[in-house]
Amino acid sequence: DDDMFSSAFCENSEKLIDVHLFALAAKFYSLSSLGVCTPLEDVLEALKGDSEGATGIKPDEFMNNKKSHEVQVMSELVDSIANYCGIKQVIDIGSGKGYLSSFLSMQYNLKVYGIDSSNSNTNSAHERNRKLKKHWRAYQSRGREKSQSLEKANDRPMESEIKCKAISEELLNNANSLQNQDQVIIQDLVPSCGFTEMSTPATNTETEADLVTGTQSHETKLSEEVLAVLNVLSADAVEDFSSSHSNCGELCEEEKVQRKMTSLKSKARKSSESNLYFPLTSCITAETELSDIITDLEDCMMVGLHTCGDLAANTLRIFTAKPEIKAICSVGCCYHLLSEQFENQEECHDQVWGFPMCQYLKNKGWCCGRNARMSACLALERVAVGQMLPTESLFYRAVLQVIIEEIYGVTKSDRHVGKTFSKSSSFIDYVRRSLKKLELDDSKLPDSCIMDYYEKYKHRMSELEAFNMLKVVLAPCIEVLILLDRLCYLKEQENVAWSGLVKLFDPVKSPRCYAVIALKNQSC
């Protein structure tokens, strides 16, 4: 309790005197210890319907390990929520380069609008979709190679001929009775089996419709290694490949059947407009009218994977205000960029703040401050497994701060140093690069003066490291405050049926691992 942990600090000086007790207190007030989170498994179980999970390629073929982990876990949850709510439209706020958006569309057949404020990101999303088409062509090639190897491995041509003929007759006469996966692979992958006897395809409309239905219902049973992409890429990302296999002037009967089946499947896929992804560029605020951006807005859910700063708070406000949005799944990040209502004690009645959101903390005038919000961005779990803090770069930045205050008299600046450390060959090079970024004249600062500052503070590097480790220990407590503020805001809304915090990701892979999830009342 509070009395037990208060002895970590000196009663008179209020200085920290018991580091171990301080660490225990920080752990006690972290999300993992407070017991306020809903386990992901429980959420998925509650949302589970009769539909089976989608099968397809894993996202690690198209993105790095961290992003792959995030997209795979979050997309499964989003699909479960969408199915539970009976919706097919998803709005991805702060979609970036479209990793989550494209995967939701391709893997789960959802119609996704990815909205990002950066036109560069939107262009990158379009380019990424273009590259996915190339991957699809590669899978076609792999499929052809696989089919050829299957033929070579089969030394019984008469049995293969009988199988091929039987498949054709079964598909044409009763498409819904397809059972043999190996047969389907041969029929779908081998454009020309080299056999002359083949049944003539049925031509009546009813048979064609049955054929489409039967083919679609069994597509997910195809070989995952060869045809996994069929379940992943949307119709507009797939190019029909059957027409490139004919080397003779006239088509033999089996080729006609194959082309007929491929054409029917292609038409069936293209007839559904739900599996589309649209990257859009727009700046989202709490007052944004989504219908101005999305002309065919319908009942939908809103998602955000690492929405930055105030954007996470604004997505929650849009969710509660717009009746079309039935659910939300939001993972925030960049807490240091949050705007705070009570940080500067300035009266701005029209301003919409990122923190606090809930009425409880508003009534108390609660404020974190930038330093605390910066600490909330640190990754305790990574440090715990040996991924130590970049002490040298932090030391460089701290000494630079002393220089720009004492030499230039600058205490605040809208400009940022950024990732200058990784590009610098020495401390002198670091300082000069940083001063240029801050638009400060470095000609008045000789190298000897720069090194004097370095030598003056070098012996205090261990103190800096200890101080930053304490910040890391405290980080989960500050993150708790921000996330619980958002959860309490949702609990205060009358139109929200359920809301919760769910740990989605492995915090070592993805430190900002908690999602705020909410579902509207069915009547709303």
Automatic annotation (TrEMBL):
Region span, Disordered: 138-157
SUPFAM superfamilies: S-adenosyl-L-methionine-dependent methyltransferases
Domain Methyltransferase, chain residue ranges per copy: 66-341
Compositionally biased residues, Basic and acidic residues: 142-157
Name of this chain's protein: MET25 protein
Species for this entry: Rhipidura dahli
Encoding gene per record: Mettl25
